[in-house]
Amino acid sequence: MNDAIMPIGKITPQRLADTIVEALETMILEGTLNPGERLPPERSLAEQFGVSRASLREAVHRLAAKGLLISRQGGGHYVTENLGTSFSDPLVELLEHHPEARRDLLEFRRTLEADCAYYAAQRATQADRARLTETHDALQACYADDSGRNVKAEGEADARFHLSIAEASHNAVLLLTVRNLFRMLERSMVTNIDGMNASETENRNGLKQQHSLLFNAIMEGRAEDARSLAGAHIQYVQRALSERTETRRRQERASRREMLSRGRPG
């Protein structure tokens, strides 16, 4: 009795273009290539990968078909600009004008950024530390400038510092989540700073100290301290905003009572 022969298809090696696609996708996912960033010139990139320009070109075309890259005639290849910006403008506007939405975002940030700080303290590379130092110094420079304060610039610097922490976490899901929120965080930080009346010395000094403590904990690899400090920072912002809101409500209530008393007959 003859054994039945099972048909087996030939095993083919992975196409070179597949390998290039995987490499570029990984670089986009981990933040090595950022949204809007231009890829190195085709010849240079092919040499770095050790592949032919034809194989690289095929991989780029496939990534463009997926919506991850765009090509500009005479201008090279770019990571798609709007990757990680899925929050629409109406939602940003909702955040700015509704205190409940700002509260929800702060609660979410407390969990998200505490984890980012924890892993950043454990995993930050030399390049990450350089980026953290750069963004931290830029934020501290905003605090040090007392002449003609720019709340918008301060909020943007604050957001960039927190984004650099997410990048240093080397957790792709955390990073993509923070990037998704980046525009919202940037705008909300401006709103928070303005709402806290950050020109008040106490609030401003508090923010300055908290960011420095968090920066130092990450740079020194103190993961648990970094997580605790990140959470405490968000709590501080929540508390300051709550106190500010309550003060405004009391002022509005007193103003209404005064108006009524003026309208009553003596």
TrEMBL record:
Domain HTH gntR-type: start-end pairs: 14-82
Pfam family, one: GntR
Gene3D superfamilies: GntR ligand-binding domain-like (1.20.120.530), Winged helix-like DNA-binding domain superfamily/Winged helix DNA-binding domain (1.10.10.10)
InterPro entries documented for this protein: GntR_C (IPR011711), TF_FadR/GntR_C (IPR008920), Tscrpt_reg_HTH_GntR (IPR000524), WH-like_DNA-bd_sf (IPR036388), WH_DNA-bd_sf (IPR036390)
SMART domains: FCD (SM00895), HTH_GNTR (SM00345)
Sequence segments annotated as region (Disordered): 244-266
PROSITE patterns per the UniProt record, alphabetical: HTH_GNTR (PS50949)
Claim: Transcription regulation is one of the keywords in the record: yes
Keywords: DNA-binding, Repressor, Transcription, Transcription regulation
GO molecular function, one term: DNA binding
Taxonomy, superkingdom: Bacteria
Function summary: Transcriptional repressor for the pyruvate dehydrogenase complex genes aceEF and lpd.
Name of the featured protein: Pyruvate dehydrogenase complex repressor
